[in-house]
Design brief:
The structure is a single chain. By secondary structure, this protein is mostly beta strands. It has a single domain, classed as Jelly Rolls, CATH 2.60.120. The chain is built from no helices and eleven strands. It has strands spanning 3-10, 15-20, 24-30, 33-36, 42-54, 60-72, 76-84, 87-94, 101-110, 116-126, 135-148. The strands form two sheets. Strands 2, 3, 4, 6, 9 and 11 form a six-stranded antiparallel sheet that branches.
Length: 152
C-alpha cells in the first residue's frame, strides 16, 4: 500500500499546519477564507496541496473530509470547488441551505506513480442588486485517509 511522504507542497499564501502519517494526513488552515463586504459582488480564494506517495505501485483510494463554516446573508451564495486527482466536486451553500458549520466528504483514486493533489476554490457571490449584503466562508481543516483500492 502506498504511504504519504512527510513533505507538503502548497501553492499560495495560506498557512497550513500539517500532521502527516503513513496512511492519513490532517491539515489545519489559517486564512483559507473569503469575505464579501458591502458593494462587492465576488470574492475568491484558492489553495492547492500536493503530497508525494511512497511505494505507489497500484491505484490508491482516498477519502477526504473538508470542514469549515459560512456566515451568509440571504442572497449570498458560497461555492466550494474541489479538484482532486482528476475528479471535480462542487458544493453550493446559501443561508437557507446550510447551518454555519460545513462538512463535506469526497472520495477518489490516485493512479500508480502519481501524487495526491487537491485544489480547493472558495467563491462568495452576491447575485442580487442589494449592495448591502455580506458573507464569509472559511475552510479550517482537511483530513485525508488512504486505503487500498479494494478496501471500503
Amino acid at each position: 500500500m502506498a504511504t504519504l511522504r512527510k513533505a507538503l507542497n502548497t501553492f499560495n499564501e495560506v498557512q497550513v499546519a500539517p500532521t502527516i502519517k503513513d496512511d492519513a494526513a490532517g491539515f489545519i488552515f489559517q486564512n483559507l477564507g473569503v469575505a464579501l463586504r458591502s458593494s462587492q459582488k465576488v470574492a475568491t480564494k484558492t489553495l492547492s496541496l500536493n503530497l508525494d506517495l511512497e511505494d505507489n505501485t497500484e491505484v490508491t483510494s482516498f477519502r477526504q473530509d473538508i470542514r469549515g463554516f459560512a456566515s451568509l446573508d440571504a442572497g449570498i451564495t458560497a461555492t466550494l470547488f474541489i479538484q482532486s486527482n482528476g475528479k471535480s466536486h462542487q458544493f453550493n451553500f446559501t443561508k437557507e441551505s446550510c447551518s454555519e458549520q460545513i462538512k463535506e466528504s469526497v472520495a477518489g483514486e490516485i493512479q500508480a506513480s502519481h501524487s495526491y493533489l487537491t485544489t480547493l476554490v472558495l467563491v462568495l457571490e452576491n447575485s442580487t442588486s442589494d449592495k448591502k449584503l455580506e458573507g464569509s466562508f472559511t475552510i479550517d481543516s482537511l483530513d485525508i485517509e488512504l486505503t487500498n483500492s479494494g478496501e471500503s
